[in-house]
Amino acid sequence: MINVLLAEIAVAGVLDLYGVQMDTSAIQIQETKKEFLGDLTIVVFPLLKQSKKSPADTALELGNYISTHCNSVNAFNVVKGFLNLEIANSYWLSSLSEISNDIDFGYAKQNSGKTYMVEYSSPNTNKPLHLGHLRNIFLGDSVTNILKAHGHQVYRTQIINDRGIHICKSMYAWLKFGNNETPETTGLKGDKLVGKYYVEFDRIYKQEIEDLIASGITEEEAKKTAPSILEAQKMLVRWESKDSEIYNLWKKMNSWVYEGFSKTYQSMHVEFDQLYYESDTYIGGKEVVEKGVNEGLFYKKEDSSVWVDLSAWKLDDKLLLRADGTSVYMTQDIGTAIQRHKDFPGLSGLIYTVGNEQEHHFKVLFAILETLGFDWAKECSHLSYGMVDLPSGKMKSREGTVVDADDLIATVINDAREMTEERGHLQSLSMIEKEALYNTIGLGGLKYYLLRVDPKRGMMFDPKESIDLNGNTGPFIQYAFARIQSLLKKAGDRKDIRLDTDLSLIEKKLIIELLNFPQAINESGKQLNPSLLINYTYDLVKQFNSFYQSVPILKEVDECTKNMRIELSRMTSVVIANSMRLLGIDVPTQM
RNA sequence: GGGCUCGUGGCGCAACUGAAUAGCGCACUGGAUUUCGGCUCCAGCGGUUGCAGGUUUGAAUCCUGCCGGGCUCACCA
Question: Which nucleotide is nearest to A569 (CA to C1')?
């Protein structure tokens, strides 16, 4: 890579000129802004302490040194403290030639020897998946792909939140008002049916609270003593003691939900390697907590609830077991983390893809794991992401503004169908191929939209924009790919690029952009941030479209130039495909 | 109230973690096809980066204060 080479030469230059040894990391190299002459720019301000000269003099001296010591540097110019270097066309052409034989360009060539586990999705089993889950799922899925591209082994996992008070709420409402309804008798998807009774519970509960308040009880008291919530709590205790009636009901309703979820995952082409069930892992968590009490790591209050003191982390004390002996969310998360490290010894990292409203929870979890003395605790990390809001504001289940995942996916595929039928080149496609294409475009647009924004930030979801075709969208990228495929089909056999081919500015810029791909993968992996890859790919495609528009490719008469342009196009499509694959987005050969 | 976090053209997002005149998309205005897929390209309009100080050769980026959102501090998950 030329940047590395230039940095080394610059370091040698500083040593030779000013007698100071520097690290290559201190050399700032960036692409030259388009309004200046040159390809790469070294910022010399940080070197002034060493040179003890003006920015202009330093840049001039360093420029002279570099151009005589690096034959890929043709010329240079100095603007203020910026040393602009012009790199020889032959360098760019040989770089293009090199990567154009690499179908896996950008991906690690060998195994890193490291293993990671990425947790994502992990829904509760009391209601269907919604838009918020989609951001979570696409993010976790993409981060997994990106880590794999770094040569790591990665396991996709979930914690299935299949126990707890929330499940009991659905069960209670179903028992009371369900009339033995099943997915079969109602034709409802299993997760939708169970979700219906979770909502039903909430309605009853609210009503009871209102009635209690009307009878003169305080709101706080009413919330604790409403009959429905007391019943649900009793159920949880019975469940933990494996009461067969409750346990069987729980199994039945959960099985409905899993069937529903599995359909949803299939529709978005997402799979997992290893599932963990809270109903299994909470037991291990409980045991560890009890052991921790005996070892004096945790303490018991008079009411026999168990707590941990986290003042060493400047965190409040945290409850680990309720007074009635049942466990909380944290208890099972402790058990799950331990189980995972038992099952996969030597994990280099365990990454939790969970919304930012749980940042505090994970700080506490990791602190507890450290308290327990697990040395892998510091390798656990929380991939936190911001909430998805609608133009109308926040999604609120109470107000019925939650965007259902199944509905959204269906909508987006249908929109893709309508738009593609209108303008597509589909004559040669069978019905099945067409359906697959609508799927690719609709889902691709949706994934692109949700992955485009920096995960850390909250984002706005506008249903109208999600599968827009113009601008910074999935279909825009897909179209560029399809168009290149069409071109390549007519291009004939590949030939090597001649290093003396003429290069225009726009062609050179495109090569430079292509060469940046490994760096984009690198950054997105380091930061666990797929949006960096999206931004990169979008810039690349814009650059390509501009190139495509400005010069003939197949109609070019000069054979060398024509061949170079074909290779440039082909390599662009390889990078598009390789990048989109990491985002979980398919690219069609025609659309 | 304590902690975390975010305020960038009308709207939605960038800015390589401190560098050149803050970029892009949507929307709006005007152009481009004897051309390989026009779901394309080119140009214009539009910003004192919430406000006020400070550090620095250089600040959207770092520090302090204020204003305004969001999240969180559960015997919920």
Answer: B36
A31 touches strand B (CB under 7 A): yes
Superfamily designation of domain A90-152+348-354+404-591: Isoleucyl-tRNA Synthetase; Domain 1 (1.10.730.10)
Residues A235-267: tens digit of each pLDDT? 989 998 899 999 999 999 999 999 999 999 999
* Domain limits, chain A: 2-87, 90-152+348-354+404-591, 163-268, 273-342
| Closest nucleotide relative to residue A566's CA, C1' based | B36
Nucleotide with smallest C1' distance to residue A470 CA: B39
Q: Would the Cβ of A161 be found within 7 angstroms of any atom in strand B?
A: yes
Q: Cα separations (Å) of A101 from A62, A94, A112, A149, A491?
A: 35, 11, 23, 18, 17
Shortest-distance nucleotide from A45 CA to C1': B57
List, in order, residues 6 or more apart from A330 with CB less than 8 Å away: A318, A319, A320, A361, A364, A365, A368
What's the complex ipTM?
0.95
Say yes or no: Cβ of A301 under 7 A from any atom of strand B. yes
Compute CA A454 distance to the chain's CA centroid, rounded to the nearest angstrom: 9
Which protein residue lies nearest to nucleotide B39, measured between its Cα and the C1' atom?
A: A469
**Domain spanning A2-87 has what CATH number?**
3.30.1360.70
The predicted-structure confidence for A39-52, as pLDDT tens digits, reads as follows 999 999 999 988 99
Asked whether the whole model's pTM tops 0.80, one would answer yes
Q: How many CB atoms lie within 10 A of CB A498?
A: 14
**C1' (B8) to CA (A460) span, angstroms:** 16
